[in-house]
Amino acid sequence: MTLHLDRTTSDPPLSATEITVRGDSAAADVLGALLHQSGASVSRFPDAGGEPAHVEAVAELAISWAGPLRGGEVTDEASAQAVCGPMHVHGRSQGSPRGLGLDYCATAAGVIGGTGLLAALFDGRSSVTTSVAQSALMTVSQYLAAAGAPEAEAAALEPGGPPFRSADGVLFEIEALDPAVWQAFWAGLGVPGRVIGAGWRPFQFRYPTATAPLPAELHAAAEARTFAELKAHADATAMSICHLHAPNSTGGPAFELATLDFKGERDRVRGSSPLSGLVVLEAGRRVQAPLAAHLLGLLGATVIRVEPPGGDPLRGMPPMCGDTSARWLALNRGKSAVEIDIKDSQDRDRLRDLVRTADVFLHNWAPGTAERLGLGAHDLAAVNPALVFVHTSGWAGRLADAPMGTDFMAQARTGLGALLRPADEPPVPSLMTLLDVLGGLLGAYTTVAALLQRERTGRAIRAESSLLAAAELLQQSAKGRPAAGFRRPLLGDGGWIHDGVPVTDDLASITTDPRFTDVVGLDDDRCPEVLTPWRFR
Known about the structure:
The protein is an alpha/beta fold. The strands form six sheets. A seven-stranded mixed beta sheet has the order 9-17-16-15-10-11-14, with helices on both faces. It has a six-stranded mixed beta sheet with strand order 2-1-3-4-5-23. Helix 2 (77-84) packs across helix 5, helix 4 (104-123) runs parallel beside helix 19 (434-457) and helix 19 (434-457) packs across helix 20 (467-475). It starts with 17 loop residues before the first strand and ends with a strand.
């Protein structure tokens, strides 16, 4: 499956830049696609000396398999998944480790590597290195933080979860962010209140835990109705519903940049990191936007979170590291915060005041929210004519019939379930937040590309990435459904093994494993922390 490579600006950030991309991995494919769309003239060669990807340009990028990870086991996609945790997290809903059918870790490395390369170009660095192993760890950082927290949950995570099956055999996903919607949908199907209540917590917590042991009565209620009946009932109760599609792509760009008719300059105090001296305002929730801003922080930017009155409620989600959620820290450590009620006109004025001195405003609000509140790209660029305005969205406005723009709905709509599981298993989306994470990585790439575009034009930039684009990047490595038994570890006397490589099935052990000394640490709250994936020169 090939990504359609529209260049969405007349003068993209890498115009007139010649780049050579070597390698035949998913990382090299993703790099080629992203750099081409960023305006570069890209030459591709298959040989990268046994490594996933190597880029030769004004600055050099090298992506290795293991990077600083010790031990020598990580030599390809499957071993990266096995050693660094994705096999374990992806398999939680089934009760044992399972390999992802797509080259997820190498795809993530391509995006992370590309972000590092753009940051190097932005700051005049000569080279940057990263690895598939470091990228794999970044994709499971919130799960790692929760597993290794001082007050980690003692109870074992039970398998289970969507999709549901209708009476006519249609597999489907549902999404509700409001417990009232959840209650109305299931009550209308005749499910007792106690069962509805028992199902809400595991359904809601499937994002941070990657599993959802739902009551059997919910599946039974779904199987008693045809999909058409369920769809009509979902529409009536505001439940978002989506059947599992076959693999598909709408053929759009991985990201979009638009130069706005506002021209301004920003003074910058350079520091030791590529984005030092830049200020990012992040109005994000869940994973996608917070992770994008977290990566920008790792590149040296000062990140200020815009949180609702009372602060982000996810700060209190267990397990805790001191007074703060471990999962929240994985995405937000090192950021400062300001509480603003965007529904209040005076607070919106406070936000505009903050925008005046920012370089980037990054958000993942629902489509149209920013514009409705007078906080859209043109509104804020009028306040700060040098602003980079970034929306990390669900669908980027490219699907007329799009369901709610969340991870598992995006997996269902884009057909990833059929590509993630081998042919002897039913097509089931992963309960690992694959697209929220990859979408966050893509959001960081998009932001740095927009910063480069601002440097070229001196004008404000509107940028957008999406979960849909992340799904399309991931599908670039697809060669149809994986064969039966593909990347399925076996249980031996010493634990789970895949092709001779031990599978990490206890993420907490990573914090004391000497192989990970240079890539994972503990922060001041004793919370596991995936260290920056880049090394610059």
